[in-house]
Write a structure and sequence with these properties.
The complex is a heterodimer of chains A (111) and B (334). Chain A has 5 helices and no strands. Chain A has 111 residues and is mainly alpha-helical. The mean pLDDT of chain A is 93. Chain B has one domain: Aldolase class I (TIM Barrel). Chain B has 12 helices and 8 strands. In chain B, helix 8 links the parallel strand 5 and strand 6. Classes of the chains: A mainly alpha (111), B alpha/beta (334).
Chain lengths: 111, 334
């Protein structure tokens, strides 16, 4: 990760992404707020999902924000790690599932 | 402000002084008191624990104890000016030898008395009978339990503390605290075990309740969620770990103007062990007494002037206005 691109203080700029396209940003933030607020799932469960997605997507801002949020909500370190393993397993599974494509092509090509 | 009455907070140079400007932006400067409804007595800085977040920097070696003269003066003032809530803190209040006398006197006066206990001390032999003392004096007990996870509580307060706290809570439950229909109120205080802000009070309370009930058969009434103030030992941790700038940035970013009118200093007065008066416990630790235009000692108490005083502010005040706000009674947004 290059320090020139990712700086921790840039996280504070996130609310300003509406610059140049305020209406679209408002739509996004309304949606974001509703999607991450407690519903049928608790705020805690949603924070763990968000942390997992952030880690899988390699977003340093979101990892920072949702690690803090999980700590704030009393989520255990072991629970956070377990959630990230779900993400890791999904990525591994997703990769391996695509071996089907390779195998199909191999079966078609080989005599 | 008379300079000889105010010593700059030791960490102000690192933190800048912009909280006052922030309040001016929202039309709340100067911040004024709105009466004195609660008197908080810091009766000792001595404590059996040495917690890593303690803003008072309490240790077993601290010797500061409120004298009998000052205690009697506080009782007289509470009677005369009808200050009906007395919030007793420390250090560990149990280590003050006059605590039982104080509680019985306040109970006889019909006061609503709160004692902030670290819970673990109630396991020491000489304090085994304190749950009954609290019950007899109808004290509202506020027990510090930083986290419902043993590892996090012990990291903050010392190995083995969590188990002692749980035993103390079970003892309090056994005499009726936290049990429905007894009227004996047992609150818990949560604060983060590191450089982050506390989460939503209702969410955390639900997790505390579920975990403590399922694992330990412990009941309590309310959870108070407290933001760590960047002073004292917690400030030392922030500096040592390189987190101070980031923590202050978090506090500034989450400044909530709605919390300002409800901050505890507006209706509370904090009395130091030596009888000096402060706007809050945090100012007390920073040696920032009430402003020099009003009486500065309990012996000169003047309800009218103190109840309408300018509150002394610093950047540590961001901690009480971050997110949902924070006070000795937890979040300011209920």
């Amino acid at each position: 990760m290059s320090d020139a691109y990712y700086k921790p203080e840039d996280l504070a700029d996130f609310p300003n992404i509406g610059e140049y396209a305020p209406d679209l940003a408002k739509g996004f933030f309304d949606y974001y707020g509703k999607a991450t607020a407690a519903g049928k799932l608790t705020e805690r469960e949603k924070a763990l999902i968000a942390l997992t997605v952030a880690t899988v997507r390699h977003c340093p801002y979101c990892i920072d924000a949702y690690t803090n949020k999980c700590l704030s909500l009393g989520v255990g370190n072991d629970e956070m790690m377990e959630a990230i393993h779900v993400g890791a397993a999904m990525v591994a599974g997703d990769t391996l599932a695509h071996a089907t494509q390779m195998r199909k092509i191999v079966r078609k090509k080989e005599m | 402000m008379n300079p000889d009455r105010r010593r700059a907070p030791p960490n102000d140079s690192e933190m800048g002084v912009d909280f006052v400007a922030k309040l001016a932006e929202i039309g709340q400067n100067p911040l004024m008191a709105a009466g004195v409804q609660i008197m908080q007595l810091n009766i000792t800085r001595c404590c059996n624990l040495v917690c890593r977040h303690c803003h008072v920097k309490a240790t077993p070696d601290r010797t500061e104890m409120m004298s009998l003269d000052v205690l009697e003066e506080c009782i007289r003032i509470a009677r005369q000016f009808r200050i009906n809530t007395i919030d007793i803190t420390g250090g560990s209040p149990e280590l003050h030898p006059k605590l039982p006398w104080l509680l019985h006197t306040l109970a006889d006066d019909g006061k609503h008395t709160m004692v902030r206990t670290n819970l673990a001390i109630l396991l020491e032999d000489r304090f085994r009978g304190f749950p009954e003392l609290y019950r007899d004096c109808k004290v509202e007990v506020v027990g510090s339990l930083p986290d419902y996870l043993e590892e996090r509580t012990d990291r903050q307060r010392g190995a083995g503390t969590f188990k002692k706290c749980i035993l103390a809570l079970q003892n309090l439950n056994a005499v009726g605290y936290g049990r429905e229909g007894t009227g004996l109120v047992l609150d818990l205080a949560h604060n983060p075990a590191g450089s982050y802000l506390p989460g939503n009070q209702a969410s955390l309370e639900a997790e505390y309740r579920r975990t403590l009930r399922d694992k330990f058969n412990v009941e309590f009434n309310r959870l108070f969620v407290l933001t760590n103030c960047p002073i004292g030992r917690f400030h030392d941790f922030l500096v040592r770990s390189g987190n101070l700038d980031d923590y202050m940035r978090m506090l500034r970013q989450t400044f909530n103007p709605v919390a300002v009118p409800n901050v505890m200093c507006r209706t509370m007065l904090s009395v130091g062990w030596d009888g000096r008066l402060y706007d809050c416990d945090f100012n007390q630790v920073l040696d920032l007494p009430v402003n020099s235009d009003v009486p500065g000692h309990v012996r000169d108490f003047d309800s009218g002037r103190l109840g309408n005083r300018h509150i002394v502010l610093g950047n540590h005040c961001y901690a009480c206005c971050a997110g949902a706000g924070s006070s000795c009674q937890g979040s300011l947004e209920k």
